[in-house]
Amino acid sequence: MEKEESPTENPVIFIKDLKKSFDSKVVLNGIDLEVVRGENIAVLGRSGSGKSVLIKIISGLLMPDSGTVKVLGQEVNKISKNELQALRLKIGFSFQSSALYDSMSVRENLAFPLVRNKRNLKTKEVNMAIEAVLNDVGLPQSINQMPSELSGGQRKRIGIARTLIMKPEIMLYDEPTSGLDPMTCIEINNLIIKVKQQYNASSIIITHDLTCAKATADKVTMIVEGKFLVPGTFSAIFNEENTVAKSYYDYNFINSK
Questions:
Q1: Residue 137 is assigned to a structural domain of this protein
Q2: Of the N and C termini of the chain, which has fewer Cβ atoms inside 10 Å?
Q3: pLDDT value at position 196?
Q4: Residue 79 contacts by C-beta under 8 Å, 6 or more apart in sequence?
Q5: Residue 232 carries which DSSP code?
Q6: Does residue 226 form part of some domain?
Q7: Does residue 163 lie within any of the structural domains?
Q8: Which range of residues forms the domain containing residue 16?
């Protein structure tokens, strides 16, 4: 008999009634979210709706005004600076810009977080980790290249590799397919799926790209007026009689043709 998944499984991300404003502008107005281990959730929404604010709060880069934000069992706004720093080492952040150091080679970019955070590693161990993660993202030949020599898609993959080298339990992707051609978008989508399977990482994927959301996410949700639509499968979200969701879908798949 197949074992049913326990509904009481502790989520790796637990958010309840999260609120965040900037001066008089309310951005998040009662966000609830649970992400379990090994689950990918795509977060959609208009520009300025608070998607990037959400993942900055999850990673402790911004503090909430009110509400509960627990990451790997720790409440991010109630732990010490040292505890927050240790927690961030378990969170991978894939920036929209890839955030590589232009003056460093790919090898040096990947070595940087390891040498900085795991000072007891030997050179051989660092090199083995670099080679392994480059193989994981499909770019072993780029090890001695400079970021300026890479395509946009390659830079994105190296940016993800630099995050994966720390073996994070949670991945936060900020517009992972932004500015990429369709074939490269497929490669990035496949990499996001591979990260989930190979690293058993839980992911939040901030995106405007519905093809990315459909391909990579177990559940999809959307920020509308500071609140989430109830997370569901891609088809469930866009089959609902929700005019906001429908207009978002039409823009991506009809008006863009």
A1: no
A2: N
A3: 94
A4: 87
A5: B
A6: yes
A7: no
A8: 6-90+172-181+203-257
Count of domains in the chain? 1
Residue 172: DSSP 8-state: E
pLDDT at position 224 is: 87
Distance of CA 153 to the CA centre of its chain: 16
pLDDT single digits (tens) 116-162: 888 788 999 999 999 999 999 999 999 999 999 999 899 999 999 99
DSSP H helices, the chain, are: 51-58, 81-88, 106-117, 123-136, 152-164, 182-199, 210-216, 234-239, 243-250
Q: What are phi and psi of 30, to 5 degrees?
A: 110, 55
| Torsion sign (Cα): 240, 243, 248, 251 | positive
Gap between the Cα atoms of 89 and 75, Å rounded: 15
Q: How confident is residue 240, by pLDDT bands cut at 50, 70 and 90?
A: low
* pLDDT tens digits for range 6-60: 444 689 999 999 999 999 999 999 999 999 999 999 999 888 889 999 999 999 9
* Number of neighbours of residue 37 by Cβ within 10 angstroms: 15
Q: What is the pLDDT of residue 243?
A: 64
Residue 96 lies in a domain: no
Per the DSSP assignment, residues forming a β-bridge with 18 are 31
